[in-house]
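Q&A log
Question type: sequence-to-structure
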Amino acid sequence: MKNLLLAAGVMALVSCTEAQEKTPAETTEAAVTTEPAQEQQESPAAKGDLVPGVYHVHQLSAGGFLFQYKIELSDGEYKMFDKTGSYTYDPATNVIRFTSGGLKDFNGVFTRVEHLNESRNLMIVLDFQGGIPDTLNLGKKPGGYYQYAYYQQPE
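Response status: OK
Response body:
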């Protein structure tokens, strides 16, 4: 019995020593070749693309930063107050243009605001006057000119 335990201990020691002698590249290569291939698709948010779902829209007013309405975006269509409309989205510029419905002629920019918590860092800055919001200079234009649509994480 002692010999069996001693043999098992020596084999474990040799195995550990061989693993330590491998370079990081060899270790990574071995891990890659022994694990089954898994396709991982990046989420729209990870790629920086517009994320479909529910957004709560707020605007600065005399009463403070107030909730105005919610919109639900899906593939080229949106719903607001139980009515639908259409939008287009350009992933190269992150510009969203509402082409019909209650938000017709609104334009926005989909962006990520890093200083907000994870559940609210995706947002669309909307210009209800039809311009394209300058997200780099939000602090230089009074906040009342834009509306801010914050993405709501699904429960």
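Response note: The chain is about 25% helix and 35% strand.
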